[in-house]
Amino acid sequence: MEVERWAIVKELLQDVMELPPDERSDFLARNSPDEEIRAEVESLMILEDEVESSALGLNAAELAQGFVEGSDAEMIGAEIGSYRIIREIGYGGMGAVYLAERIDGKFEQRVALKMLKREMNTGHLRRRFDQEREILASLEHPNIARLLDSGTTPDDVPFLAMEYVDGLPIDKFCSVNDVSINGRLELFRLVCLAVEFAHTNLIVHRDLKPSNILVTDSGIPKLLDFGISKILGAEYQNPEMATVTRIGVMTPSYASPEQLQRKTVTTSTDIYSLGVILYELLCGHRPFEHKEFDIREIYSAVLETDPQLPSAVLAASSEKFRELASARTALIDSEAQAEDKNATRSDHVKHTGDVRLRLNPTSLRGDLDNIVLKALRKEPERRYSSVAALSEDIKRHLDGLPVTARPNTLSYRAEKFVQRHRLGVVGGAVLATAITGGVATTFWQANIAYTERAKAEKRFEDVRSLANSFIYEFSPLIENLPGSMPARRLLVTRAKEYLDGLSAEAGDDPVFKEELARAYEKVGDLQGNPYNPNVGDVEGALSSYSRSLELRESILARDPSNIEAKSNIASILGRIGDIESNGGSYEKAAPLYERALEYRKEAVDADPSSFDARSDLAEMLRVRGLLYFFDGENKQAIEYYRQSMAICEVLKNERPDDPAAARSYAYSFVAIGEAQGWDNEFELGGGNLQKGLDLLIPLAARFSDNARIQRSLMLAYQKRAENYEDLEDMKLSVPLYEKGAEIAEKRLLSEPGSFQAKRDVAMGNKKLAQILIKAGRGAESLAKMNIALDQFRQLVDLDPNNKEAYYDVANTRHSVGTTLFLLKRYAEALDVFATADREFEKVMQMNPANTYALRMRSINYEYTGNSYSELAQGPASKPEHLRNALESYRAALNGFKKMEEGGNLNEVDRPEMGKLTKLISDLEKRID
To answer: DSSP secondary structure string, 602-643?
Structure first.
């Protein structure tokens, strides 16, 4: 809407709000220049009623003021970040959208630049703007307009750089191009793919309407404007945002009953809005279009009135259809123009009225009427269980199969049979009088067959819906509840059972296969992803990930050049590699990471401007480097870390306000510094560790609810503390270990069911105990080390198949022994070292290639030898003490030699080999 027209809106709004409520409607009818302005004023009147109790603290007139002040002319040519504004393409809502071009010289690119108006740049709306950025960053789909960049202007106004979609709203595209009914249905199914993808990422759009779905000349729909979306994940829930995002910024004509009643919003809300869009695409009208000019009437109709059948609406207007279509498409939609959106080309809009639409009422009767009305049911639970189910019913209609929205009557199924087998039925009709009984029997049998098939299809959809509910809705709600671990395990088990049943019905549908693959991936995360809250079932996670990989491999086999399929495979390969790596199976993890890395590189080559593709590549490079680090190849690790860091730096500069990009860049310094320390470069490593810590501290303060950033800060504190420990500066080391342990404890309070959070607490206690003994606080050290040992043993009980958990127990047991050794309690230490040796042996039996276990068992042997040597010099000395010490030192040296032969010896351990060689030589002389 032009600035001049917004001024009229503002003036009318101020006048009408001074009148009693019962006089306002008549006043607007008399004084509004046109219906568009009247509709805008009415929408702001509703906003006025709602906003008084909201967190915004603004009235509607002030909002309108925010829209009016400032001209687009002053923005033309302005440089915002890496972009220069060309022209305004959308105005309203909480800001404006501009067509802009990239000017940094990296490549040519046009974007839709969305900016919050300076007058609206409040803390609450900034958080809403930030939420939209977070949502868009998580959505990479061919039918969703991509987020390309984000940032703030020098005066701290946020902006988003979106993919510029040169197209028309879906309803106008269908009118302009005279799209057939079937063509509209196929186009609508592509929209469903985008919405379903958002839902599987726990995002509800909440403002679906034609103006938020642009279709390009090539017929590709793009979903826009996630500005009032709701994220179902608990980590995004914010009381202030809950108020802001419920105000009347959604469009009443497309809003569901529960939205208007301010009830809980779920994925079913979007299904209702899709039903309205489908209604409009099929009959040229919205369900309650005749009531839209009275805001209270439209509210009442949505809540209480059943819409007419689309076929009936179309039939009633068929005689005047050409004239109506011309009038409708020439009229700028009163609601859509007040929303942020990409451009709709004016030359196309001008000529939509000249197009004759090929819409036939008879083609809507039956299936399509029922499909639309099922999506539009007042009660959310009576609509389709998912967007995929809605899309599937449309596909069944297109294929001439029974749809779930239609009652399973014999006449209906017979009708479908006739449509699919028309020639056979006509031929059979010639013999009808002779075989009436046979025909009756045939239809009776067909009735049974169709009934059973319909029942099976209904069961299939029910199971599909239930599995999705378990995975995407129930699990996030209970994952942080105290004592919820048994319930979470049962939930994951049931979800996987349902998925296994669905998997058997996948057929060769690539869309359904990917839906299943993503669900198996999510179940695997819940079972045992080492970097996410999980129930500690590593073997179960591997099984789920493997099934996801199998499904995605079959999708890629159909189209070996499919970059999206390769990216999805890379994601699951990385997860399987993480489990193998954390379990010490480095030789299994390496080829998985290498293949994932290859696919990540292909994705970047295919689209060098894709932020997500480059971010995924940077993460995969870091993970590959980490595996080299685990395997003792520190220089290789540092090389991969540096490659990752170079990409992270570019991404951070492109999106300076993106917390994930900032975290990845900061943690690159930590990873490099740690590897340098293990290469005996303590001073150099310490410098990088401090750089990373200095970047993470303010980032964690700014994003205090971001679990990953908080964990990165915890690790940075611990690794910097280890570095000071290596430099023998206990005064600086102890407080950093304490800060790391404190962060771990806080995280466990917010995620009490998280296996990873529990492990972090145990590890924090262990590391703190190790430094306390060196700082002369022996009693505290032993007490805290025993606490850590008990915590690690509980993790083994939680997941008996978790190889890493067994290693943690053995390693911590050894640390209890070293603490006793340093306290000169040598006999007690020997008992503990003996138990630790048996536990390390079990770990190595579970995974012979675990070089960490081999290293720690060697060190355990060395401390065993040291304990026997100390006893041999004491008053209770026995002849076998020296022989036992010698055997222990030999075992330790053999372990280090194996690591050296395998190329896995860390530089910090090399001096130990010389030390052990001398000890062995001295003891052999003494014993001889």
So the answer is: HHHHH-TT-HHHHHHHHHHHHHHHHHHHHTT-HHHHHHHHHH
Helix (H), strand (E) at residue 160: strand 158-163
Rounded Cα–Cα distance for residues 892 and 379 (Å): 70
d(CA 202, CA 99): 30
Map 248-316 to HEC letters: CCCCHHHCCHHHHCCCCCCHHHHHHHHHHHHHHHHHCCCCCHHHCCCHHHHHHHHHHCCCCCHHHHHHH
DSSP 414-435: HHHHHHHTHHHHHHHHHTTTTS
Residue pair 535/492 in contact (Cβ under 8 Å)? The answer is: yes
CA 225, chain centre distance (Å):
18
Predicted confidence at residue 262, as pLDDT, reads: 77
Rounded CA separation 888/868 (Å): 9
At residue 305, what are phi and psi to the nearest 5 degrees? -105, 135
Q: Which long-range contacts (CB under 8 A, 24 or more apart) does 145-148 make?
A: 145/112, 145/214, 145/222, 145/223, 145/224, 145/342, 146/610, 147/611, 148/109, 148/111, 148/609, 148/611
Contact 516, 499 (CB under 8 A): yes
Give pLDDT, residue 399.
78
Here the tokens at position 169 are 């709203």
Q: What is the pLDDT of residues 353-366, one digit of tens each?
A: 333 344 565 667 77
- The pLDDT assigned to 743 comes to 94
Q: Furthest-apart CA pair in the chain: how many Å? A: 116
Phi (first) and psi of residue 77, to 5 degrees: 90, -10
Cβ pair 312, 289 in contact under 8 A: no
Q: Which residues are catalytic?
A: 207
Distance set, CA 71 to CA 74, 117, 482, 913 (Å): 6, 11, 54, 75
Q: What is the DSSP string of 68-122?
A: HSS-GGGTTT-EETTEEEEEEEEEETTEEEEEEEE-SSS---EEEEEEE-GGG--
Sheet of strand 95-102: strand arrangement: 79-80, 83-92, 95-102, 110-116, 158-163, 147-152
Q: Contact, 205 vs 226, CB < 8 A? A: yes
| Nearest partner of 171 among 215, 127, 230, judged by Cα | 215
In this structure, the number of other CB atoms found within 10 A of the CB of residue 724 comes to: 21
The reported pTM is 0.51
Sites in the chain below the pLDDT cut of 50:
1, 47-71, 231, 233-249, 320-358, 407-418, 420-448, 450, 452-453, 455-456, 458-460, 462-464, 466-467, 470, 472-484
pLDDT of residue 239: 32
R_g (Cα) of the chain, nearest Å: 33
Closest to 466 (Cα-Cα) out of 425, 434, 503, 494: 494
Is residue 170 within a helix (H) or strand (E), and if so which, with residue range? helix 170-176
Nearest to 661 by CA among 641, 640, 645, 643: 645
Name the CATH code of domain 166-398 (choices 1.10.510.10, 3.40.50.1820, 3.40.50.300, 2.102.10.10). Answer: 1.10.510.10
Where exactly are the structural domains of the chain?
3-69, 166-398, 410-478
How far apart are alpha carbons 894 and 644 in whole angstroms?
Answer: 36
Residue with tokens 């967190």: 55
Spatial distance between the Cα atoms of 155 and 121, rounded to a whole number of angstroms: 10
CA distances (Å), 652 to each of 160, 446, 468, 663, 708, in order? 15, 63, 35, 9, 17
**Cross-strand bridge partners of residue 102:** 83
Residues written for the chain: 928
On whether the CB atoms of residues 144 and 222 are closer than 8 A, the answer is yes
- Sequence-distant contacts of 912-921: CB under 8 A, at least 24 apart: 912/859, 912/862, 916/862, 916/889, 916/892, 917/893, 919/865, 919/889, 920/886, 920/889, 920/890, 920/893
Q: What is the pLDDT of residue 431?
A: 34
Residue 345's pLDDT is what?
A: 32
